[in-house]
Amino acid sequence: MSRMIFVNLPVADLEKSMAFYEALGFTNNPNFSDETAACMVLSETIHVMLLTHAKWRIFTDRPIPPTDSSEVMLALSCESRAAVDTMIETVGTNGGTADINPRQDHGFMYGRSLADPDGHVWESFWMDPAAIPPTAE
Q1: Which of 68, 76, 114 is nearest to 92 (CA)?
Q2: What is any Pfam family matched here (predicted)?
């Protein structure tokens, strides 16, 4: 069995966050969703759990970072450079913030950053492993 990842994120407005992630291509799994949490599925192995602040506090008493800080940057691969750009364009029209960091273009790898409505930082990237320059020995 493949290992799965469930990224848990505190959100201020559950419905708004669900709509944002749905616009990026995630789907809701109603079996693990209620008025306090939503399980948003990107693939069989990648899930994002959106948790209201009250639900978040059931799991930890650590403070929720302000929306203008970064606790982690999550990276999602895309099938092409154009798909990276499409994701970023979708962000701006669905309540997120596009290009919060400078674009990264290394030829074999291309990436752009975004923040969801709660300020969680994501990197959308494309990479061609066959084009990675060899390392000097």
Answers
A1: 114
A2: Ble-like_N
